[in-house]
Amino acid sequence: MKTSDFHFELPQELIAQYPPKERTSSRLLCVNSESGRADIQHKVFKDILAEVQPGDLMVFNNTRVIPARLFGEKESGGKLEVLIERMTGTDTALVHMKSSRSPKPGSTITLEGLKVSVEGRQDALFELKFHLAPDQDLVHWLEQVGHMPLPPYMEREDEDSDRERYQTVYNEKPGAVAAPTAGLHFDDALLNALKDKGVGIAFVTLHVGAGTFQPVKVDDVNEHKMHSEYLEVSEETCEAIRKTKALGKKVIAVGTTSVRSLETASQSGEIQPYQGDTEIFIYPGYQFKTVDRLLTNFHLPESTLIMLVSAFVGRGPILNAYDEAVREQYRFFSYGDAMLLDKNPNAEALWEK
Predict the structure, then answer these.
(1) Phi and psi torsions of 328, nearest 5°
(2) How confident is the model at residue 36, as a pLDDT?
(3) Which of 170, 213, 174, 214 is nearest to 192 (CA)?
(4) Residue 156: inside a domain, yes or no?
(5) Which of 96, 125, 153, 249 could form an SS bridge with 55, CB 3.0 to 4.6 Å?
(6) CA 339 to CA 299: how far, in whole Å?
(7) Are strands 229-233 and 200-206 parallel, antiparallel or unpaired?
(8) Is there a single domain that holds both residue 310 and residue 196?
């Protein structure tokens, strides 16, 4: 299985640079493959209300994106840019750093006017200690001075509006440096309408790291090593899933981060509470244990996420759906349109089709 097997052509102009005016005004491409073949329908996102049934359970990722991009300088005066990958304490973090020459462990840098110590390195990441005021913690300081970490394919600087729009309306737990983008399409009114219909709502937490945008650098998919991300799946969510399954209803993951959370917590064969890191890599051949349907945005060519959705419905059907989306001028990636996918029981058999 080659990384190039997951390539598709995408015109640059289809990459959404800004969100739609209203969260729910995006489009929705539905791919029903339960019958073993993929039927495609073009809808609008509000149609999600008609696509789910009473008793179904939708599982959302309630992580909150932190303003994780920072600018500053080294002791020499050289400019640098930092992107936090993970907060490791109230005043420490692991970060990516862009600089003409990397600062050495033991040196001091300045970020947004604050002195920061370079404590060490973990592979490509730098360990930083932020010298905050006694009444501050890192999350609070970042909210005051940081920049929203827009993905690299958004070729613009972050704006004030991104602080609200590059964030789900149900965000709760700070820690992500990229949004769980499938959730960006929901507003409070739509969530309430789903509850009124009898659709269950549950939450997981997965703090999305910057590694989600890292390209797959190996030709053989089996040789790729996933980045690590922190997640929590509570007993309350597990119980909601068990009850949904017992009633013969569907578990619908909102976003690939919810998929990765639920499938990590299901590795024993049955959903169990989980708290810790995950490096789960889902690609064709993977047997899904919990998720029945997936609501997701469109993903980068040759990325681990297009491999995940290929595992869910089949490589051929998903690439056909992407080709259809390009023809129909759907908007791609974080601020783009959405897809609703039904799990294909023959996905693995469709690998070469």
Answers:
(1) -90, 5
(2) 53
(3) 170
(4) no
(5) 249
(6) 10
(7) antiparallel
(8) yes
